[in-house]
Amino acid sequence: MNELVQRLSEGEHPVEASLRPGKTATALKESIDRGYVHIRFTNTRGGTDLGVRLDREASNFNEADFEHQTGKVQLVGNLTLNYVKVRCIADIDLATLEGKGYLEPVEG
Fold first, then answer.
1. Which residue in 108, 106, 104 sits closest to 9, CA to CA?
2. Could you give the CA distance from residue 49 to residue 53 in angstroms, rounded to a whole number?
């Protein structure tokens, strides 16, 4: 398995919602509505920015208040990183747009 994929699959790692032009809960909500978010693993060399196609069934938005920028979301989705199919799971606090995340290798 690829070294980066293996490292990000072991334990939880600091992540942030990677948003442009502004890093706001509203911008995150717009990304969620499009079904595609960018999650940045901040503790890799230079950071690792992943584009994640959301799995709405697996993600959790029940504790999110985007209007007041409070609560948290769990973003879950699949992508391919360095030729390895993985599932990204990230818990993001809407006040800071930071949290913890990890990857799970997907068989097949």
1. 104
2. 13
CATH code at 3-105: 2.40.250.10
- Is the pLDDT at 25 greater than 80, yes or no? yes
Q: Are strands 84-93 and 98-105 parallel, antiparallel or unpaired?
A: antiparallel
Q: Which residues contact 20 (CB under 8 A, 6 or more apart)?
A: 27
- Give residue limits of the domains in the chain: 3-105
Could you tell me the pTM of the whole model? Answer: 0.94
CA distances for 56 relative to 27, 47, 53, angstroms: 17, 26, 9
